[in-house]
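Researcher: Watch the backbone:
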Amino acid sequence: QVQLVESGGGLVQAGGSLRLSCASSGIFFSANLMGWYRQAPGKQRELVAQISSGHIENYAASVKGRFTISRDNAKKTVYLQMNSLKPEDTAVYYCATDTPPRYWGQGTQVTVSS
């Protein structure tokens, strides 16, 4: 039974920070590529950040320099530290395994007010 559970979303003012967490179970976590995606109303789901089993990071241009993805293999958890948040970052954020994604979490809402 594979489960990915996101947490840490909420309402924050522009310029603020949030840290999202994705706790996993039922996968060989340390061997998996993990990613964060987001989807805003009326827009396609987009890749935000990825981190490989070797801790290599990849970011969308729109978040590079502001967001940081990390993983804790002992806790089987992947994180997304989001700094300098902008209203255009408002979306539901999802974590997923692999590329193309094989498993998805249910998402956590991030709302950035101006």
Observations:
- The longest strand covers residues 18-25.
- The beta strands are 3-7, 10-13, 18-25, 34-39, 46-51, 57-59, 67-72, 77-82, 91-97, 108-113.
- The CA atoms of residues 55 and 70 lie 8 Å apart.
